[in-house]
Amino acid sequence: MTERVIEAKGIELCTESFGAPSDPPILLIMGTGASMLWWEEGFCRMLAEGGRHVIRYDHRDTGRSVSYEPGRPRYTGADLVDDAARVLGAYEIPAAHVVGVSAGGALAQLLALRHADRVLSLVLISTSSAVPGDSELPAPTEAFMRFASAARVDWSNADSVIDYQVAYARVLAGDRRPFDETAARRLVRRDVERAHDFTAARNHDSLTDGEVSQALLSSIAVPTLVIHGTADPMFPLRHGEALAEEIPGARLLTLKDAGHGVDRADWTTIVSAILEHTAVE
After folding, report:
1. Catalytic one among 35, 260, 263, 266?
2. 102 is known as an active-site residue
3. Which of 78, 195, 225, 277 is 20 to 30 A from 100 in CA distance terms?
């Protein structure tokens, strides 16, 4: 495990790699507002032990990457897409297998459209189409919407932010499995304490799209695996099903009773699926 801060076009991004650089590369893209810590170390090591060179990184305004004044990000969603390509460039990797979760899955789709030559395959977890179009997709669950409208947090107070993030993680986990609050609180606290400015992550909520590709998902030509929980409260299962239908040849793997994200209970299943999907034929 090696942490490295890269600089590309004046932007500093904190990255970390696992495994041998000679192995097939996997780039992990986390959802917006979340640092690379949410790709937990144990999960990354499992992929590396399966013979993959794994790279995770902090988005701008998360973790130890560059941060901006809260409310004034000075970058767009398209810049976050380009950041993924910048990470690959810094590691001198021409193209990688790309795994994205939540909004990171949308960034992965846009990476495949905007920088098609940098993507060998896609794994899209707990996400929806990055190209709007299907108005019939279901809204988030009532429990998710209730939390989103009622939650209160004092962003100037670390303890308040930690309590909020743990409560949010509980909602995202869905209502069909036990929630490990101790583990969640440990991860959230580490995330908050590690960040240059934990309040800056709010900038992701106000990003504009920027100059993103207008191509259709049907133009994605790389092998794609969609992984989706049957109890996802943010993007109900139909989002994953529709995504798999839009991308030619995509396969869908459903995780029974899983909520939103990469639950430790599913690590073995997800890692096995990623290793199979990224195997060199």
Report:
1. 260
2. yes
3. 195
